[in-house]
Amino acid sequence: MERMRWIDRRGRWPVVVALFAALLLVACGPGRTENRSSAAGEDAALRVVVSLPVFISMVEAVGGERVDVTALVPPGADPHTYQPTPADAKAVADADLVFINGAGLEEWLRGLIESAGGQQVPVYELAQGLTTIEEEDHDHEHPEGNPHLWLDPTYAIAYVRQIEQRLSEHDPGGADHYRTNADSYVAEIEAFDAWAQEQIATIPPERRTLVTYHDAFPYFAAHYGLELVGVVVPSPGREPSPRDLARLVDEIRAQEVPVLFVEPQFNPRLAERLAQEAGITTQVLYSETPPEGGGYLELMRTNIEHVVEGLR
């Protein structure tokens, strides 16, 4: 199935109204070029915009010096509730291509792109065509399924292969370069995954349980044989009820869960209070933003280390 969309419909999101003037200033130039050779020249790097910081390293690993990558959501921000800025509008309008996760994660970005002043912006959804896990009891926040597929290395490899394909389509002269780089990066992900499986195997089976701040880790848990016991927040921006929290504390105690995993982009106070009530500790997991100075593999390696440390 074709995964590129030439977006030119009218936006429906309120935030776009505030940005429309900025979009008119930055998005009224000539239409998008078909590939690199017809643009500024063979030596011009492809201008690639990604929605999340975690995707930067994927695109850079495949593209190398032939790409210039910008992420819209800044490190530490919540992509579920992010509000785009005029600078984001300019970045999208200036891009040669845009990679988003899809699966309903970046609805704010879809609205931004759809109002790009008539520009034809090639947008690729990395999760399109992949099988998602249906969410339950989350007020249909993500009707297309849980969007955090990249936290399963198998899906991350699918993302990398699509990045390779799309960069090659826009820059045919670099196809061999992209293929070689993608092969190398996939091998790194596979080597990491083999190591990660060995680490998880050191956790006693009865302790392979996860309680997380929000529902970002079902793919991670399924891939590594961990049981998701519960989440603190049903969906970002919606506070759990006292009854919800009491039920989760009871479940933590019943299953003897030793640690509650929090995420740095969210205020930790609620999770810390719940952990204190349940008599357990907290530990950090990363979902959208890698640890400082790192990329996707550093994010995943840190998560494995923290899970093993917390559960073993």
TrEMBL record:
Instruction: Write down the Gene3D superfamilies for this protein, in alphabetical order.
Output: Nitrogenase molybdenum iron protein domain
The highest taxon in the source lineage is: Bacteria
Q: Name one Pfam family in it.
A: ZnuA
Annotated transmembrane regions: none
Keyword entries, A-Z: Signal, Transport
Q: Which family does it belong to?
A: Belongs to the bacterial solute-binding protein 9 family.
Looking up PANTHER family in the UniProt record yields: HIGH-AFFINITY ZINC UPTAKE SYSTEM PROTEIN ZNUA-RELATED
Query: What is the name attached to this protein's record?
Result: Periplasmic solute binding protein
Q: Which organism is it from?
A: Sphaerobacter thermophilus (strain ATCC 49802 / DSM 20745 / KCCM 41009 / NCIMB 13125 / S 6022)
The top of its lineage is: Bacteria, Pseudomonadati, Thermomicrobiota, Thermomicrobia, Sphaerobacterales
